[in-house]
Amino acid sequence: MYSIVKFAFLFVAVQSVVSIPANEDEKTLDLRFEYGNATYLISSMRLDWYHARNYCKVQGMDLVSIESVGENSAVMNAVSDMLTESFWISGSDLYQEGAFYWDSTGRAIGPFQNWAPNEPSGDRNEHCVELNINVNHLWNDVNCDLEKLFICEMNPCV
Ligand SMILES: [Ca+2]
Ligand SMILES: [Ca+2]
């Protein structure tokens, strides 16, 4: 009898420990999806590009780099229900004007690219890349200080 009570107590204790992180997850409303071995997160809050990058890093992730047709399709699919939003991605030319690279990997953007017509427009104050809602989420360089939703990516360590 004693051991049954002890077991019941242990069961309740374990359950309550497990339920805490689950509740914490629900609070943020961030959406997660997967493609290949990578995990992605669509934020539920708007931040400037720098703070968006920091938010991803706190999650053990980084802003998304879209490097293939397949990865692009997965991301487009995930944001297709969010028709009124633009999203920050990892692209930037902060290091050297006009030389766009993925901040998350340090590699130059390409060969896969998905720029909107006449983008990147290369304006002196447009150094961060968004998925622009006005052109079917094609890429556009804009001012990094604008507050937008954003997409994080995490790849397994290799
Ligand atoms: Ca990627
Ligand atoms: Ca632009």
How are the SSEs placed, and which strands pair?
Layout: H1 2-28, E1 31-35, E2 38-42, H2 49-58, E3 62-63, H3 69-79, E4 87-92, E5 101-102, E6 128-132, E7 138-142, E8 149-154
Parallel strand pairs: 4-8
Antiparallel strand pairs: 1-2, 2-8, 3-8, 4-5, 4-6, 6-7
The chain binds calcium ion (2 copies).
**Tell me, what's the shape?**
globular
What oligomeric state do these chains adopt?
Answer: single chain
Which fold does the CATH topology refer to? Mannose-Binding Protein A, Chain A
Number of strands: 8
Integer tally of domains: 1
What is the name of the CATH architecture?
A: Roll
Mean of the pLDDT scores?
A: 87
Distinct ligands = calcium ion
Q: Compute the number of helices.
A: 3
Structural class call reads: alpha+beta
Measured between the Cα atoms of the first and last residue, the distance is 51 Å
Reading the helices and strands in chain order gives: HEEHEHEEEEE
Low-confidence stretches: 9-23
How large is the share of residues in beta strands?
15-25%
What does the radius of gyration come to? Answer: 20 Å
- Biggest sheet layout: 8 strands, mixed
CATH class: Alpha Beta
The CATH superfamily is identified as Mannose-Binding Protein A, subunit A
Main attributes of the structure:
binds calcium ion; alpha+beta; 8 strands; 158 residues; Mannose-Binding Protein A, Chain A; 8-stranded mixed beta sheet
